[in-house]
Amino acid sequence: MKFQVVQYADLNSKQKEIYNFHKVAAILADYGFNCIKLADDWQSADFLALHKDGKNTLKVQMKARITIDKKYIGKGLHVAFPAKNSWCLIEHDKLVDLVGEFANWLNSSDWRNKGNYHCKSPSKKLLAKLDQHILKSA
């Protein structure tokens, strides 16, 4: 078999989700996490990240872009999304707090009426506040 690099744009939505999971899981391995992909969004999580210390387990929801959603509030959920040529991993409720402080999304009709908001290009101010949550490859 000859291996050929795939183009992300050529993948269907389910393939993109699996691809993104493996990209994030590979980086989280550098931080001592073993990631387990879930089949059914268990407790809103797409995967679990179990730390080598045996004490810390993260429930993680994967997103194609920065996203907040009222259905995730109070669930102890982390969200992972592409940012700054890597991935951002942050507690969802902390992200909502930062958005409230550094963006106007909580006043949007999508947030008020639909209960969620996502953005392809967040402001520089918000991105700067997310710096400490950007995963770095080893």
Q: Helix share of residues? A: 25-40%
Radius of gyration from CA coordinates:
15 Å
Main beta sheet: 6 strands, mixed
Terminal-residue CA separation: 30 Å
Name the poorly predicted regions.
none
Question: How would the blueprint of this fold be written?
Answer:
Elements lengths: L12 H18 L2 E10 L2 E7 L5 E6 L3 E4 L7 E7 L2 E6 H11 L6 H6 L1 E4 L4 H7 L3 E2 L3
Parallel strand pairs: 3-5
Antiparallel strand pairs: 1-2, 2-3, 4-7, 5-6, 6-8
Helix pairs in contact: 2-4
Written description of the protein model:
This protein has 138 residues and is of the alpha+beta class. The protein has 4 helices and 8 strands. It has helices at residues 13-30, 92-102, 109-114, 124-130; strands at 33-42, 45-51, 57-62, 66-69, 77-83, 86-91, 116-119, 134-135. A 6-stranded mixed beta sheet has the order 1-2-3-5-6-8. Strands 4-7 form a two-stranded antiparallel ribbon. A hairpin with a 2-residue loop joins strand 1 (33-42) and strand 2. Helix 2 runs antiparallel to helix 4 (124-130). The longest helix is centred in the first third of the chain and has 18 residues, at 13-30. The radius of gyration is 15 Å and the shape is globular. The model has no long low-confidence stretch (mean pLDDT 95).
